[in-house]
Amino acid sequence: MRQGNSHRRHIWKWFAWICGILLILWIAAGLYFFKVGMVPGHKSFIRSNTQTLKKSDPLYHQKNWFKNTHKQTWKITSATKNYRLVADYIPANHPSNKSVLICHGFMNNKESMGAYAAMFHQMGYNVLLPDARAHGQSQGRYIGYGWPERYDARKWIEQLIKKNGQDSQIVMFGVSMGGATTMMTSGIQLPHQVKAFVEDCGYTSLADELDHEARHMYHMPPVIAKPAEASLSIVNRVANGFFTAQASSVASLHRNHRPMLFIHGAEDDFVPTQMVYTNYRATRGPRQLWIVPKAAHAKSYQTSPQQYQRHVQKFLQKYVH
After folding, report:
1. What is the per-residue pLDDT across 83-132, written as a single tens digit (0 to 9) for each?
2. I need a surface site. Which of 30, 211, 215, 295 has the fewest CB within 10 A?
3. N-to-C CA span, the chain
């Protein structure tokens, strides 16, 4: 009898050891992927922004204009965490009440959005390009993927109104993470001066995007990916203030009644093209969808420059005058 009890204790001891090891591995996986995804720094899977500008670039003239044009420096304090945020402001050539807030992508910065700044400036807009928290010249410990940044965006919008008056008409535009930031911002209470949104290749939610990357970048089967994603979400909640599923473009779009143009590359395998259809169906305001043939992730403007500007301009002319 004693031998049987000893055997059972031995089994339970081994079971406890195995559970303890699995728990440690689970937490370690969450910490690892948190560092990869949420802590700013060099990312091997992201192309550097310091590429030499070449005349063969379809957007050479736009990028060169931005490089050489005079920019004002604006600064605000973030909506949470008391970070210093920095932006470039370029007034329109002639006094204008039309302004655009341009949001960049993951591990990019305001300089990476120079071609879009040139496009909107040519359309007669005042242009404001912030560095998101934890990017570029802005302070921040962790990347928020648009979720905490949506309240920072509202503060930038308030600065535009303060600068250009109560009759301001404001558009918000973003690419990739900036596109998600745009959609997430559309779901919060905003000044009436915000007239429309344009989002380019934003994800449905942070959780969906992380799941896609776990399977396609790391080739993790669901039985491993799902627990790792859950661990990451918990670590992110403790360190960054929110669960990954909370950062949802779809949930935010359900609360949006303003016009939105959705743009996505047909060959996007980083933020899958199928995500844009879910986002498009979710919004409650006037909407338009353009799938850009042959365009990879965040390459729609570069792939079809003239058509891109025509689509954006034609859509906004209905709502911004």
Report:
1. 999 999 999 999 999 999 999 999 999 999 999 999 999 999 999 999 99
2. 215
3. 88
Measured between alpha carbons, how far is residue 183 from residues 110, 307, 319 in Å?
19, 23, 17
User: In which element (H, E) is residue 198 found?
Assistant: strand 194-200
Extract the tokens encoding 147.
Answer: 């979720």
> Which 8-state DSSP code applies to residue 125?
-
> What percent of the chain is helix, strand and coil (3-state, nearest 5)?
45, 15, 40
Q: Which two tokens stand for residue 45?
A: 């899977």
Q: Do the beta carbons of residue 231 and residue 260 sit within 8 Å?
A: no
Ramachandran category for residue 41: left, alpha or beta (phi over 0 → left; psi -120 to 50 → alpha): left
Q: What is the pLDDT of residues 188-227, one digit of tens each?
A: 999 999 999 999 999 999 999 999 998 888 888 888 888 8
Q: What angle do CA 101, 66, 53 make, to 5 degrees?
A: 125
Q: In the predicted model, is pLDDT for residue 281 greater than 80?
A: yes
Class of residue 58 by CB neighbours under 10 A (exposed 0-12, middle 13-18, buried 19+): middle
Q: Cβ atoms within 10 A of the Cβ of 187, count?
A: 20
Rounded to whole angstroms, how far apart are CA atoms 206 and 301? 24
22: tokens are: 């699995």
Give me the sheet containing 98-103, strands edge to edge: 72-77, 84-90, 126-130, 98-103, 169-175, 194-200, 260-265, 287-292
Q: Give me 80's structure tokens.
A: 């949470």
